[in-house]
Amino acid sequence: MTGVDLHLVTYFVAVVDHGGITKAAQSLYISQPSLSQAIRTLEKRLGVTLFDRAGRRLELTEAGRRFDDAARRILADVDRAKQKVDAVRELKAGRVDVVTYSAFSIDPLVDVVRLFRERFPRLAVRVLAADGPAGVLSALRAGDAEIGVMDSSAEHATFTAIPITEQELVVAAARDLVRDLPDTVPRNAIRSVPLVIDHSDQNTAALFADLVDDEARNVVVDCAMPAAVWSLVEHGTAATVLPRTVASTQLAGARHLTLDPPLRRPWDLVLRSGLPSPAAVAFIAAARAHAGIDSAPEHRDW
């Protein structure tokens, strides 16, 4: 379905249900030429002929019948998602409990929570701090939180993971500390730069492997507290590795080095199996909107 707009799917189903362009156009309040063009656009994007136009009444081709089944599933999924979000909008009060750890406590959590609150001002968010991915899963398992934000590469066992997007990571350092390095720097060149990072999480350690020497001697401070890390960078104690969005806001005066090859960390929303609460569905929609993804959830059991 890549490249197919939702309104084209809606138009296609209307033509099928009304048996032709004329009545479908009337029901959609658009002109017949516009609807005909929309159907041709849909066929061009799919690379198939959906209707047999030989007779007076449009008949579905074999490809059209297959697409009809898929189109109705898509519209049903979107309708269910909208109903979930509408249900949340009608709540006078409610809360979603979210758990994460330092790697995601600023990016993406701050922007997702901000967007969630803009869309659902009657609902609150409680954010819990965890000690890495294992702590996130432990909080979900215990029922302390409903949604976890964590590294996509981390093992999540029987939990449901919803891929969202990824962070671009850069090196931020006081200018004197990296004055001999270019703006775009090979990863292995960072092995000679003192670092302050949270090196306790195995997934983060694996991600940063190219930046750390064989005995981790250039990790001069192992710290999981973002504010302390930023202060150490500002004072020239060491460089750090963090999302570009965080570097631009929290360490604007530092130098930001792009890594070659680029270093990216994908992240997921993780939930226990079962039906999420309406507030959780709304939070998922906000996270997907933050990432520029269609807000209809991917999990078909919702």
From TrEMBL:
The cross-references to CDD domains, in alphabetical order and at most eight, read: PBP2_LTTR_substrate
Any idea where the HTH lysR-type domain is?
A: 4-61
Family the UniProt entry places it in: Belongs to the LysR transcriptional regulatory family.
Question: Which residues fall in a coiled-coil region?
Answer: none
Q: Per UniProt, which keywords does this protein have?
A: DNA-binding, Transcription, Transcription regulation
Q: What is this protein called?
A: LysR family transcriptional regulator
